[in-house]
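To the team - thiamine diphosphate complex, inputs and output below.
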Amino acid sequence: MAEAEIKVAKKESSDPASQYRAAFRYMLLARTFEERTASLYRAGKIVGGVFMGKGQEAFSVGLALALDKEREDIYGPLIRDQAGRLAFGEQLIDAARTYLGSVKGPMRARDGNVHRGNIHDGMIPMISHLGSHISVVSGRLIGKRFNNKSNFVGGVCIGDGGTSTGAFHEALNQAAVEKLPLVVAVADNQFAYSTSTERQFACKDLVDRAIGYGFEGYSIDGTNLDVCLETFDKAVNRAREGHGPQLVIGHLLRLCGHGEHDDASYISDERKKQAFGGDCLQIAQQHLLDSGISNKIEISQWTSDIVKQVEDATSAAQREPGPDPFQETWQALSTSHLSEGNATT
Amino acid sequence: MSITYLEAIQAAQDKALEDNESVYIYGQDVGSFGGAFKATKNLAKKYPGRVIDAPISEDAMVGSAIGASAEGMRPVLEMQFADFSTVAINQIGNQAATQFWRTGVPCPITVRLPSGGTEGGGPFHSQSMEAIYAQYPGLIILTPGTVEDAYSMLLEAIEIDDPVIFCEHKYLYYHLKADRLPHKNLPVGKARIARAGKHATVVTYSAMLHEALLAADGLKEEGWDIEIVDLRSIKPIDTDTILASVARTGRLLCVSEAFPWGGVNAEVISRVTSEGFHLLDAPPQRLNAKDTPIPFHPDLWKTHRPTSQAIASSLRNLLRY
Ligand SMILES: Cc1ncc(C[n+]2csc(CCOP(=O)(O)OP(=O)(O)O)c2C)c(N)n1
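Output:
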């Protein structure tokens, strides 16, 4: 599969051009897959909601590519991190299965879509409550430290709105107190659902908080893939080398509704022309061409490969069975003899 | 030699740390200070790096414990007071409790809640949270009412592969003493007949067990033999033991220190009426704290919570029916 090929490219070569090419392909794969889920959503084929990462793929992929599963790094993605999930190692079929309600998906149809994850693989299955997964990532790092491991890093994603939660504050403060190798990536996409940032926080730039928490901070153009790759590379290395937690704020714009149910009429076209309003995928593609890192023929080959992969994954997942309520154990505990199950009716 | 309920909790944590390298303790002031109640006294010194002070961040405490458990650790968290665990209710009820069902990966964390009222505790240092947590699928809720149970059930809690809410009662910390710690005890999930009787059953747990025992002693002088079931664990509830007792006595009074709406008493009565209606000679009754915040002044507090006198009076009404 071309997916695997992208991974090979990542592993075999860490020179900036190869990394850029790999990153671009993850972004393109994510965008193509999400557009497919959006059209399936409109066709009524998706169980639950669809939330896209359109406009933030560069920022998302930047963190995930800097992480390394072989060093047991932990990744805590959120709703707009399809690109990062793929770059971290998620199989496209598992994403498709979750959206399409296949029982073979990682959540076995018990939980859906963006909540999917794989604990053993280091990818946290987020719950809805924003901010609450950050301390879970920290806990993984604390656990590794207890187990005398070293060289691991945790990367965790959140939006501008999620930074207003108590959980975010508690987790960042805790991570700094514990001097954890944690990289927190805040995608400031100018909106939290319909609420713009003036109603969300009153500091000039969320990176101002870094100093208060005791983090090293970065405030970057989240639409520029080069900058994203470079910054996350640095932040992840700083964390790995023992410089403590890192806060990376990416400035960008959500180029879609909050979810596919939302037409985002409250985001003006003007906004897209202002700073950080561009489409990171187009910007990256232009850069590939301008710099000669790739060319039109290669990009169109990548595109057709990716379209096929997406088609294959979604149609395979659609053919798979959904869950069978009669096969369900209805037990929330792993200790079965203590489970009340349906004792009370 | 005698050992208090609080010392039993300290001893259980000591043993867990000794026996299992994966165990660590995390909570506010639990380190060299030994905890607000001294439940972790001397442990930080004895187990360097494994008994750790936490910032005042109950949400992050539980969140991080969930993450650490996925790395093979067995975190034991101390909430300074049960009341403050509401700050972590999201991590407990939505994150820890759902994890196994959502992902198939167990979440072995133990959250200790110093629970229940004491004189002068007031509205925010007195609450009994067990029924609130019992609402969430995926949690085990323990409410030890004896020194022996405090010890053995805490050890068991730490070994259980699911999140356990361990409701230890502050009123029992110093009052309750035993001669020695148990080697063997009833397992989690089993209720105990704390007092055998034949005229009525009291189902209760935690500090109310002792109020009920006092009430039963008083009624003995009036010629009544009261049977007392100590639930020990409120999730799961040992319905069989309750039903067997009601089958013997035909009368049921449920006593809990928690607020009245819903809760453990309502759950027990619901199960007994639906599964053992034919066993009942009188309508089942319940006694809870009053439906107001918990008062600060001892004179108010003593009336707010069920006492042995209130239990005795409820029992007399039940026996007269
Ligand atoms: C604690 C909490 N409150 C409310 C919500 C509902 N909610 C889901 S996404 C969202 C907006 C999030 O905005 P932001 O964090 O900026 O991320 P973005 O959607 O822009 O990527 C809201 C309010 C939630 N998931 N969690």
